[in-house]
Design brief:
Blueprint (H helix, E strand, L loop, with lengths): L8 H4 L10 H16 L3 H6 L4 H14 L3 H11 L3 H10 L2 H29 L2
Helix pairs in contact: 2-7, 4-5, 4-7, 6-7
Length: 125
């Protein structure tokens, strides 16, 4: 994935990535992690004409306003976003803004998971 993925700059920038992990692979693995945790269709994600963050925002907004709210909250749980962060985001914003903020937080959290996995793999911590 490239810049058009819409991933936050602070995630795809030079973060002192662990040995053997380049920025492109990092972004690809973040997307794969979010796809896994949100149980998204990888083919649909690959065909999307909007950024990954916008796609995720749409998924979250739709899920929160429909019968799939439990699925969305389960995704947040799998990412370990934290109940307080979710609650405060939902209370402080309209649904669309909250969905976008939660999408960004989900991507950040997925980035931390990927980074940690690589760090421990390469440094044996």
């Amino acid at each position: 994935m490239n810049e058009s993925s819409g991933l936050p700059r602070e995630i795809i920038g030079d973060l002192g990535l662990p040995k053997g992990l380049d920025a492109e692979t990092f972004v690809e693995q973040i997307v794969a992690q979010v796809i896994k945790d949100f149980r998204l269709d990888p083919e649909r994600v690959g065909r999307a004409s909007i950024s990954f963050v916008e796609l995720l925002t749409d998924e979250i907004a739709e899920g929160l306003s429909g019968e799939r709210a439990d699925e969305v909250f389960a995704s947040f749980y799998r990412l370990d976003l934290g109940e307080q962060l979710i609650r405060s985001t939902l209370e402080a914003n309209d649904r669309r803004t909250a969905a976008r903020e939660l999408a960004m937080q989900s991507v950040r959290r997925a980035g931390l998971k990927v980074w940690s996995r690589w760090k421990y793999k390469t440094e044996g911590l």
